[in-house]
Hints:
By secondary structure, the chain is mainly α. It has helices at 3-25, 27-39, 48-52, 61-64, 68-77, 91-102.
Amino acid sequence: MNTKARVAGLVLLAFSAVAPVLAQDSGADVYKAKCASCHGATGLADSGAGKAMKVKPATDPDVKKMTLDEMIAVTTDGKGKMPAYKGKLTDAQIKASVEFYRTFAK
Ligand code: HEC
């Protein structure tokens, strides 16, 4: 086996070991699957459902002043038209998706 093939093999091996973990727990993946329909692909609530429910964009001052823990509480227990994710997502998935959502506030 030449060096190039060996390196390619190692890279493949490393990737296949890491990929399932990413697919499960990545905040971006959870956000896209569960949150983007209402909060918009980039957190601006510019989707149809987001507009219909008057969801605030992540850049709104009221949203920006919320702490990570407050957002986790809203996502876990729900608020107004926002569904509760307790039991539907793991605590780690909720935290990861909220952290991803918060990256849009900047
Ligand atoms: C069915 C539409 C819907 C989905 C899906 C949804 N949300 Fe919301 N979300 C809302 C609405 C509506 C509010 C405003 C609630 C209020 O203030 O009465 C809200 C509020 C929030 C807030 C509080 C700050 C703000 O923007 O007002 C956070 C944080 C949040 N959502 C995160 C999430 C996360 C994370 C997910 C995915 C796990 C998610 N949401 C999925 C509709 C949704």
